[in-house]
Amino acid sequence: MHATAPVVTLVIAGACSGCYENFGKTQILSSGAAVEESRIVVDLADRIHLIYVCGGDLAAQSSLDRGVSWAEVAIDTGVLGGGNRLAVLAGDVEADHLYSFYRVDDPALKFARTTDGGTTWNSSEITTAADSARGLCLGENPHDGALVLAYGADGVAYSRFSADSGENWSAPSVIRVGDTSSLRLWKLAFLADGELAALFSDAVDNPSTQTFYVASSWDNGQTWTSPVSLYEPISGEQSESGDLIVANEQLHAAFSTRFGDRSSVNHASRSGEDWEVESAILENTQSVVADVHLATAIAGWPILASYRQAENIYYQVWDEWTWTSPARLNNAWKRVLAHYGGMGVLSDGAIGATWSDDRLQPGVSADLAFALSDPSNELDYGVSLVDSTLVSTLVEGDSIRFDFEVGNWTSWPGTVDAWIEYSGDRGRSGLLSKRRITLNPGESSILRLERLVPIGTAAGRWDLKVLVGDFPVADYDTDMFSVEVVSASPTDGRAYRAALK
């Protein structure tokens, strides 16, 4: 249980809009097939587990060394496509236990369990009238280890519990009878005294107006209190995404809403019996905000809110009085970001995050990505490819442009070298350009590479790598991209084609 855990704080830098803060270099862990959905959990042994749906199969990757190396294992094959069908939980009573619920075929759900820290999995099917588009939630009672599953079907929110780690499940209990098209479950959270809270959204008077509710249970979901509305919505306001956690023995909820073409993310907390909307995390933005997640250190403070907005992931910190400005977590290609799987917190306060990233095959596949914050709070300097301009056919006078962002992730000003090297077939290599950059703490600068494709360029693959350090040693970070130069066509001896690899 978490009761004897040491007091730690979340490892995050002071937020600044547009920089990557102290999250390390993004790792691409699975590529070649579209990652449709993922979840991250950290168990009591500080093992990081990523559970995800890729190419129609359910798989897991686990790391015993804070994300340095990963072991992949298949859990189940043939999982149906479509989102919102995956609930994952790290065992709170035993560190080796990990649980996952997922949909394989309506109305069937499957329950997978590992008792060896993610090395092997076994699964069993639960036949129930569940519509996973209405959400799947899983929680564990910290007192007796009972598992509680919540799901929706035909406008009704149900719960079932298991007292034997998922071997057997109770008959369904009703949490709420709601609107068929609006009701959606978001999260279960247990408090220290055994109270179980369920966060869900539903219509108020008609499906065009929705809000978020919380209901409570004191018997592992067998009976529920009447739901309490977190706020009064504007007529026509729609619910988008929500999350619920326990921090400092209080319930905290974050939820995104949409009204017309404007979106907001709000924060509410419960002290005693009453809920209060604390403040807006993000207010009145034109971009759709989805995949809202909350996280906190084991000690319960501070609270971290993160969410997907357009093609990027942002996070903000609540210091009990106000939310910091948004800071970008990922270095996406500024293309379609399929999903954001949330955050997990290690015992020393370091934060791991997972999402989809299409940098390797833009517009073709969404790859599984992972990044971890540094407990030292000093990540030196980093570089990431942030944008590109490509055309399918290049002729004399045309160019390819790539933008790299170089950031200072230390607590002091500094000067570093940033340079670009190229290499091709048969050992062809060299230095393309070099700059010396001075940056203040938390500051970043865009480095642009813009080059013509010369007529005499040999056909084949060319790798271009941007490096940061004390030239010629790349002490801090690197990133790379490739172009393929194709021989001139018979009709136009000046035409070449470049494609991102």
Overall geometry comes to globular
Low-confidence stretches: 1-21, 389-397, 488-501
Based on helices, strands and strand pairing, what is the structural class?
Answer: mainly beta
Number of strands: 35
Description:
This protein has 501 residues and is mostly beta strands. The chain folds into two domains: 10-376, 6 Propeller (Neuraminidase); 385-485, Immunoglobulins (Immunoglobulin-like), CATH 2.60.40. It is built from no helices and 35 strands. It has strands at residues 27-30, 35-42, 48-54, 57-63, 71-76, 86-90, 98-105, 108-114, 122-127, 136-140, 147-153, 156-162, 173-177, 184-190, 196-203, 210-217, 228-229, 238-247, 250-259, 262-271, 274-285, 289-296, 303-309, 312-318, 327-328, 340-345, 351-357, 367-372, 381-389, 399-408, 414-424, 429-439, 444-452, 460-470, 473-485. Mean pLDDT is 75; it is low at 1-21, 389-397 and 488-501.
